[in-house]
Amino acid sequence: MPESEIAGLKVVDACDLDAELRSILRPGEMLRDTQERRHRLPRYFYEVPSHDAAVAINLTPNFGLNEFVLVDLKEAPRLQEWPRYIPCAVRILAFYLQRLRETVGLSIHIAVNGGYRSPAHKLAIAATPHMWGTAADLYRIGTTNLDDRESIEKYRRVAEDLADDLWVMPYGHEVGRADDHIHVDLGYLIHVPREISEDRMELPQETPRFAFEEQRRGDRRTRNDEG
Ligand SMILES: [Zn+2]
Q: What is the pTM of this model?
């Protein structure tokens, strides 16, 4: 892929996307979580033009954008097509996952559909940080499958010791617990990229609001990832 196509991710204001996408992404709307607490959905998204671009763009040395936009068949059909959209806060999640990877010294594997999930996902019953792009479901670290109490609780402690920002779902079979993966999240974090000019959101604009993220590092453009 020519470098110019992937240099600088495009940031879009989801309020300006077409009606179908707005109804799926619901930018700025309030959503209740399972505890009846209300949270405001994100508004600024990276527009990922193609599978090739998702594979080519890395967010950190070891985490590619594609790992966060792999969706399953329960996702809204429109979000199974390209371009795909993912809240800009995913970059901050990737930063923390990179720190976790460096701490454990092992590869970290994100499940398919373990990154972003839209509010229209068929299993979406309440607000979850997955809808903010700030949660990841990990199914394997190194060669350890995260499917028992010992491994889940071990890495839960590692992650929560790493940063107070990280929350890891405890082991268990009930709602709000996990027994076959590690769910880690940063809460309902919204990221407004510096290149964006925040404006009124009530009506879609005739000229869609978007910006290209400025290049910060050369290594964003290509991945040299061993997992
Ligand atoms: Zn999860």
A: 0.89
